């Protein structure tokens, strides 16, 4: 199992356990876990509504690619620890990481 922590917009943290080898990105896992993520573009790095802040574990993640960096540059609250959840594959690099949801709320 891969275990990481998600902090919602209210500051509440919950651990999430995902089986290894699952072929999903972090955005898909957050939506499936009933987190309020808009994800307007469906994971294409075109809308930034799945913006997360990596509170712990950023160094273990693969580097952001140009499309993700370009989209993050459009956000007023993006920082060096910002990522788009749709661009983070769920694998062992997420073990122990902590993510804070930053993107716009959806309509659950």
From TrEMBL:
Signal peptide range: none
Record-annotated 2Fe-2S ferredoxin-type domain positions: 1-105
Cofactor(s) needed: [2Fe-2S] cluster
Keywords linked to the UniProt accession: 2Fe-2S, Iron, Iron-sulfur, Metal-binding
Domain of life: Bacteria
Pfam family for this entry, one: Fer2
Entry keyword annotation includes Cytoplasm: no
Keyword Nucleotide-binding: no
GO biological process: P450-containing electron transport chain
SUPFAM superfamilies: 2Fe-2S ferredoxin-like
One function term, GO molecular function aspect: metal ion binding
Family: Belongs to the adrenodoxin/putidaredoxin family.
Name under which the protein is recorded: Ferredoxin, 2Fe-2S
């Amino acid at each position: 199992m891969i275990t990481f922590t998600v902090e919602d917009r209210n500051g509440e943290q919950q651990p999430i356990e995902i089986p290894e080898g699952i072929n999903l990105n972090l955005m898909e896992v957050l939506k499936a876990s009933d987190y309020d993520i808009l994800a307007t573009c469906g994971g294409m790095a075109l809308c930034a509504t799945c913006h997360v802040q990596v509170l712990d574990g950023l160094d273990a993640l693969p580097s952001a690619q140009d499309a993700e960096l370009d989209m993050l540059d459009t956000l007023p609250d993006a920082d060096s620890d910002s990522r788009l959840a749709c661009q983070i594959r769920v694998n062992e690099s997420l073990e122990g990481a902590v993510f804070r949801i930053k993107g716009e709320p959806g309509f659950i």
